[in-house]
Amino acid sequence: MLDKLSKIGPVINLLLLLLFTVSEPACAADPAELAGIEEAVGYYIEGGQTGDLEALRKAFHPSARLQFVRGGVYQEWSLEDYLGRKTPGKRSDHRARVLALDFAGTSATVKLELDYGSFKFVDYMSLLKMDGRWWIVNKIFYRTEG
């Protein structure tokens, strides 16, 4: 486990931050569930920072949807559409910060800020626990300059 974590150093800071930003009732409910949510979000961040499409596949449920508004027009991508826009192996220098995390039972939400320097994304992710693990099933996001 430590060997894997050493390869994704930037993710470690995010996961530690998760421990301090999660609401008290959720954290008290079941630390094992929090670890599963952290794992799914960690795969998402790792894949985004390293261009590892397989890590992204581990984060998202195969039927996940990504939704956003561009130029005032609603857009929706399937997971395959999203992955098709990624360049495998292309590193991305951005900082990820968890702004909020909440869960109850088999449902969770995570709000992330991805800071690229000249612009930021705010991601709102819905996760569900299925087949014994947590999956991102929906992501809506917004891009802001600065």
Write out key terms for the chains shown.
146 residues, alpha+beta, Nuclear Transport Factor 2, Chain: A, 6-stranded mixed beta sheet, 6 strands, 40% helix, 42% strand, globular
Note down, in words, how this protein is organized.
The structure is a single chain. This protein has 146 residues and is an alpha+beta fold. The chain has one domain: Roll (Nuclear Transport Factor 2, Chain: A), CATH 3.10.450.50. The protein has helices at 2-7, 9-21, 24-29, 31-50, 53-59, 79-84, and strands spanning 60-70, 73-78, 95-104, 107-115, 119-130, 133-145. The protein has a six-stranded mixed β-sheet with strand order 2-1-6-5-4-3. A hairpin with a 3-residue loop joins strand 4 (107-115) and strand 5. The protein is globular and about 40 Å long.
β-strand amount: 35-45%
Radius of gyration: 15 Å
Indicate the percent of residues in helices: 25-40%
Low-confidence stretches: 1-27
- Tell me, briefly, the overall form: globular
Main sheet summary: 6 strands, mixed
How many structural domains are formed by the residues? 1
- Mean pLDDT, all residues: 85
Instruction: Figure out the total of helices.
Output: 6
- What is the CATH class name? Alpha Beta
| Cross-sheet strand order for the largest sheet | 2-1-6-5-4-3
For the termini, the CA-CA separation is: 36 Å
What is the tally of beta strands?
A: 6
Order of helices and strands: HHHHHEEHEEEE
Estimated structural class: alpha+beta
What is the CATH architecture descriptor? Roll
CATH topology type: Nuclear Transport Factor 2, Chain: A
